[in-house]
Amino acid sequence: MDQVIIRELRVTCIVGVLPEERTTPQEVVVCLAVGTDIVPAARTGELDCTIDYAALAERVATLIVTGRYRLLETMAEDLAASVLADPRAAAVRVTVRKPAAIADARAAGVEIFRERAADTGLMRPARRPAIVGVINLSPESNVPGAHAAGLAAVRDRAAALSADGAGYVELGARSISHDRAPIDDAEEWRRLQPALNALVAAGYRVAVDTWSEASATAALDAGACLINFTGAWPSEELCGAVAAAGATLCALYLPYADPYRMRACKPASYRVADILKRFRTLRARARAAGLDRLVLDPNLGIFHPSHDDATKIAHQVQAMAALPAVARLGCPTLAYLARKSALTSRQLIAAQLAALGVDYIRAHEPAIAVRAWQLHAALAPAPVPAAVPAANRG
User: Fold this and answer.
1) pLDDT of 270-304, one tens digit each?
2) Which residues make beta-bridge pairs with 29?
3) pTM of the full structure
4) Which residues pair with 141 in a beta bridge?
5) pLDDT band at residue 385, thresholds of 50, 70 and 90?
6) 130-379: what fold?
7) Residues 6+ apart with CB under 8 A from 68
8) What CATH number does the domain located at 3-115 have?
């Protein structure tokens, strides 16, 4: 295979796990060999027909500097993912070295080789996904059967979700339906608190769906172990609070400030490149706050009120297409099993998510997600060594 090569690219950055390494920049040396077809560029003489090594070097340097990595392994995986996000790249070999890592050695480092997934690009799941079962506390909800009115109903639904395979129960107190009146943070917390206290006391692993940082922080104090943040940009302060609680933060790709303010905005598109760019920034923010437990959700469920069903499906296809690249960022992935009216539509989405190897599936009907994974695990070919781990590497 033809190759575009960059050798000995030197970048000064924050890298390492030792306290002094988190404050004192070091030099890393990077080599890339990108497998690609150079024939179109050779025949046309057009730079757009090949991988521009100058632009690639700039992108690599920016990623390294902004990433503030703890491990060279994570840096190498991110560089490989960034290269393979270009459809012209079929494979890449990445070498990253720290010249000053060991006193008696010229350098120490890692080298990895990654290829674009063959055929469909689907990833076999390394393990059964964690299922997050949804309990809606908002009477405005238009999802049939999901609303629980009163603590008895909350307990009953939590028990049913758990019996159907949910490892987490998620409480949400705000409806995203664009035709329902907004509520404020105080009302959201009034709805959340009794149910959250009851389920935590009963021993459930409780997630909270909110775009309010005040509600998220209060939920952490009350024992929530996962915050499904459905606003655009969780702050560094919220990331720090999640880290201090030993909890997990799920960050959603949303090209609006939050679902309420989305109503007044012009519709935005969902593109794989935009999703990856947003998630790289969010990951850097989380790392700066000391948060290692970050989950990324490319968004299969929150859309602009002007979008018709065909547009929503197109956006969902883009979000699912982004999942393999998002996984290569080194964070677990979450996807919403959209509550379509037809059972076969829900089963089809569940089968696609199982084939894509999603780490968390958020569902109103956990049994559908569990059954889809069981069928996929039984029918899939023998597993191969994973190119990227499912969990954060630091």
Assistant:
1) 788 888 888 999 998 898 898 989 999 998 877 78
2) 10, 97
3) 0.66
4) none
5) very low
6) TIM Barrel (3.20.20)
7) 13, 14, 15, 284, 287, 288
8) 3.30.1130.10
